Amino acid sequence: MGNVRSTKDGYLFLDFYYKDVRCREYTTLEDNEKNRSYLEKGMATIEKDKVKGTFDYLKYFPDGSKADFFGKGDRPAIPQTSGQHGFEAFAQKWFKATQVEWKYSTKQDFCSIMENHLISYFKDSDIRTISKIVLKEFRTSLTTKSGRKGEKISNKRINNIMAVLRLIINEAYDELNLRSPFEKIEPLSVVNKDINPFSPKEVRTFLNKVRQDFRNYYATRFFTGMRTAEIDGLKWQYVDFTNKKIMVRETWQRKRWDTPKTKSSIRDIEMSKIVEEALREQHRLTGHLDFVFVNKKENLLDHNLVTKRVWYPTLKRLKLQLRTPYQTRHTAATLWLASGENPEWIARQLGHSNTEMLFTKYSKFVPNLTRQDGSAFESFLENNINENNSETKENNNEEDDK
User: Fold this and answer.
1) CATH at residue 281
2) Which residue range forms the structural domain that includes residue 29?
3) I need a surface site. Which of 20, 155, 251, 365 has the fewest CB within 10 A?
4) pTM (2 decimals)?
């Protein structure tokens, strides 16, 4: 029986099986009573047609996620096999053997990519016959697909899909002692989205006007640079008021506990005065619980709900530029840089393994925030070089007098 479901961003999609293949057809309809009722009626019609044997996938979804698989006709002809060299058989074998190495979120993403893109396209293709040109044709076919909100799949997402396929193909060809066809296939170019941190004035405005029960939460986000999964999973046992540190040791994402994103993400964040005040105030509210930030029912936060019900409404009400909650992390980085903190210290606070990202991503915001634009260097020259020049001139004058 098919269902109408909602994405984490609040958009509806149809989830059903047809010929033992799971189909997820995304829409641009927001999750509300009217839209859900409309799609449920459509889902009921689909189920009736399936029972009658008259369901035509391409009639309903001509550009759907499984259009290639159900006969759109633009899929390249690849020799088929159901033996041990079949793509699906090897991919499932690889996934089962390798998943122990991955974080839960990675495993979920890889599973989704395999289910929605790779297996539906290659199915029982003989993995030994998947050539470089076939891989490029598959990549090109992805550019015609639509994402969850109806937009075309981005180059970044295509690269992620190809990365999983690369792992599978390379593993198979290594096992077969063959040269991988993935050699010299470069990722598509990706234009990184510009970061859009808050100015100090915007931070102050936001914290003064946000819902009172979320002020401490956002103050901590703005001035620690913690990721959503890190702050949503913060426990009081990791808040050290004595040494003024926040210890990042666990994360809460996809409604389960996990380890931090990378090794360098396991870190101690220095607690500034404003963060300490926010956390001490929060301790009076939730100190009897295990978790620092909770909802009104004292349950862990659902970041999707918080974003929809608190974050964006506050930005709209204050007429601040709309941006994602992740910009709080960018804001912390730019404020630290603008205040002149040591880049290596900043990198450790953010959980970066080195300072490279600071200089490539954030440094351009420093002049805009400090409005000095080289004045620090001018001051250095004035206090050091020019002073030495003055001494030289005085010495020269003395020599002339002699």
Assistant:
1) 1.10.443.10
2) 1-64
3) 20
4) 0.66
